[in-house]
Specification:
two-stranded antiparallel sheet; 181 residues; mainly alpha; 7 helices
Length: 181
């Protein structure tokens, strides 16, 4: 911290101390956010589906969303671009080297794919996709990896039931804690 900033900081602290202000004197700022509104702002989706919003989507709908929102970075067939650190979304099995594992073979839960898309995609405008579009593109990613048929669909109730191959070779602290209860 520069000496000028230190001086300003000390002056501010001195003024606060001299005023005799206490925590009780601090005005209440802002407003309480209604529970239903807060639910849409800060969520976590768990492997068992807790936290998933109501809704669903089909592979066919997801293909449209993928072509419009995802293929420009991840490629027409989910091949990614590892030279640009753009993850591979689809692959045909677990290769020998983890760096080249596709999302379908390295993520242990389909619900995690949903949550990541909802939170961080598309990177140029995160949280732009509707819940229906997120379910649909998640279904399409699962289809590209061979986990759903072309006429498949996912929903709040079915997405947690999709068995991902990585469940067999990744250990989950969450599952261990849940099984102890």
């Amino acid at each position: 911290m520069s000496s000028k900033k230190q001086m300003l900081h000390l002056i501010a602290l001195g003024l606060l101390a001299a005023s005799g202000a206490t925590a009780e004197d601090t005005p209440a700022l802002g407003q309480t956010i209604p529970t239903e509104e807060l639910a849409g702002l800060s969520t976590t989706v768990y492997p068992d589906g807790e936290g998933l919003p109501p809704g669903g989507g089909t592979v066919r709908q997801g293909k449209v969303v993928y072509e419009d929102q995802c293929s420009v970075c991840h490629g027409e067939n989910g091949e990614g671009d590892m030279s640009m650190y753009i993850p591979i979304l689809a692959g045909n099995g677990k290769p020998d080297h983890g760096f080249h594992w596709s999302t379908g073979y390295s993520w242990p839960y389909a619900t995690s794919i949903f949550e990541y898309v909802r939170t961080a995609m598309p990177p140029f405008n995160p949280k732009e996709l509707s819940t229906a579009e997120i379910y649909a593109v998640t279904a399409y990613i699962l289809h590209m990896n061979g986990f759903l048929p072309e006429d498949g669909e996912v929903s709040q109730s079915t997405l947690p039931k999709v068995k991902m191959p990585a469940q067999d070779y990744f250990s989950s602290k969450w599952e261990k804690e849940e099984s102890q209860h």
